[in-house]
Amino acid sequence: MKLPLSGRALTAGAVAVATLVTGGSAAGAATAPAPAHPAATAAAAPDIPIANVKAHLSQLQSIATANGGNRAHGRAGYQASLNYVKAKLDAAGFTTRVQQFTASGRTGYNLIADWPGGDANQVVMAGSHLDSVTSGPGINDNGSGSSAVLETALAVARSDYRPTKHLRFAWWGAEELGLVGSRYYVNSLGSAERAKISGYLNFDMIGSPNPGYFVYDDDPTIEKTFKDYYAGLGIPTEIETEGDGRSDHAPFKNAGVPVGGLFSGADYRKTSAQAAKWGGTVGQPFDRCYHSSCDTTANINDTALDRNSDAIAYAVWELSQ
Fold first, then answer.
1. Distance from C-alpha of 45 to C-alpha of 67, rounded to nearest angstrom
2. pTM exceeds 0.70
């Protein structure tokens, strides 16, 4: 998640060339037997294996360690992170596109992945920013969201999911410099293309070590989808306010696209009421390593990461049928 405007440098974006790369082989068949009446039975979202999500986080940590300790915009660690995610998606049968832009004098990249099929006039998107700050590897912020979105996309391929709506996944560059990548993407779309996006779901910091369970309250349908999921677990949620307007949903919202998402907290401190609901430590930040060098794989709450990863899949399935 980017810093508030007062705490970050201003950036300058410049139009650059976008490139298209086509994905690889088709995904394997579903492992579960087909229902007796598939046309009348809604597909159920799969459980997202937390071990798989953590394996992606380990790879992002290794990439940062090998590249100056970060995965920041314009640095080798970001490019290696994008290559890792793209290779997984290409192998799973997605059509991937790398979109290039310029910010703060460095080249940045967005990665867009489309799952074949579905109504191209009704697009459900799920996205997260892939860049870190320069001061650390960015494993919670935002390896957590990036890895969970990646594993949800791979679950789509493993199950050979065929939703009514078209599915698109995205990993944004230069979010930490002021939502540069996502804003570039939204601005690159014509009004007709923007109107086809029936919902954009954003996931920025979903494994905070002293976690809260926060839901965006922007679009009522998307908000209810996430709240229903957590109600089914018996976990109370709160409306997300700490990051409002500070992550990649903002350019979509400003363009009139319905948005929603999840968040587990950054540098705000957990209250006694929140600790009573969720556990954790009163008076401590949700993420004491926010934008710091200690935002490593040790800075993740597995339970929050697991629940939020499953919630992402639940929303993707529910909203795309």
1. 36
2. yes
pLDDT along the chain (321 residues), means of 10: 51 36 34 36 89 99 98 98 99 98 98 98 98 98 99 98 98 98 98 98 98 98 98 98 94 98 98 98 98 98 98 98 96
Alpha carbons 300 and 279: distance in angstroms, whole number: 15
State the alpha helices, DSSP H only, in 135-213.
145-158, 180-188, 191-195
Identify the pLDDT of residue 2: 77
193 tagged catalytic = no
- Label the pairing between strands 19-21 and 95-103: antiparallel
The DSSP letter of residue 140 is I
Candidates 151, 175, 240, 318; catalytic one: 175
The pLDDT value recorded for residue 52 is 98
Q: How many other C-beta atoms lie within 10 A of the C-beta of residue 107? A: 16
Q: Is-cis flag, bond preceding 110, omega within 30? A: no
Number of C-alpha atoms within 13 angstroms, CB side, residue 271? 4
**CA-CA distance, 283 to 305, in Å (whole number)?**
22
Residue in 175, 189, 178, 203 with CA at minimum distance from that of residue 316:
203
Give Cβ neighbours of residue 213 (< 8 Å, ≥ 6 apart).
230, 235, 236, 237, 238, 262, 264, 278, 304, 307, 308
In whole angstroms, what is the distance from residue 116 CA to residue 96 CA?
11
Tell me the C-alpha distance between 257 and 295, whole Å. 32
Q: To 5 degrees, how large is the angle CA 266–CA 269–CA 270?
A: 105
The 8-class DSSP code of residue 156 comes to: H
Give the integer Cα–Cα distance in Å for 77 and 256: 33
CB 88 within 8 A of CB 169: no
Shortest CA distance to 48 belongs to which of 319, 315, 318, 309?
309
